[in-house]
User: What shape does this take?
Amino acid sequence: MQGRRRFLLTAALGSAALASGCAGLSLDDEERDDEAVDLTAVNASDWATACDIARAIDPAGWRHRRYGSMTPTRYDAGQHDGRPALHARGTGGNSTLRLPLTPAPVDAGTRLEFAWWVGALNDAADLRDREADDAVARVVLSFDGERRDWVARDHVLSELVRLITGEPLPDASLVYVWDNRYPVGTVIDNPHTRRVRQLVVQSGPAGLGRWVEHRRAVADDLTTVFGAGRAGDAPLQLSGLGVMSDANNTGARIDAWFGPLRLTGGTLSAIR
Assistant: This one.
């Protein structure tokens, strides 16, 4: 029984980490002074200014999400290779920079644009292995929904996440990943819950050492990773955005840059 409790706690932490773009999360670790991130500097940076994103719930802007006693990733805003950028770095780290959003449905016109710069991938990582599911670069979208297709395990994990973070597990989280082993287009469930699904949008060493641009049709990607849904379900509401670099399972070195993010189109335009 003790082993099962430990597994569920680990699952909850892992699920909370990848779902961390969701709105309204609150944890004491996030509120304390934290040398890993100077949020005042980040939110006043050229990178934050250049991000074009639907109105955030919290006017303070970007927030740093830590997970229990895990070593956090360090995030610093600056310039890299000709553009404003956010630098994620550390060794064996795991934390997220996130922005809670005013919930709004996505439609065919919703687009997410982002760029990342990575010098080296983590060869030891494997997104299908709960003991090694690290990634040098991820962009996370989180969604509110009706939870009609939840199974008992989802509800248990959601309650654990609520106890850890103050908010339940989002109905869905879509995670864009630069992966070291699986081909582009691969959909990988989080090892702990199918509420969090990862879409490989870049794979392998091609593109290392330079900026790589991505433009994603969010509604199409939601259908790819979660299916078309059931008739009568209300549209998922986009409620959070995050960037994440982690290596807490493999203990590897993290070093990645994220360019400004742009989230536009469709119903999102109405809340600007």
Remarks:
- Helices lie at 2-18, 28-31, 39-43, 46-50, 152-165, 218-226.
- Residues 2-18 form the longest helix (17 residues).
- The chain has one domain: 2-271.
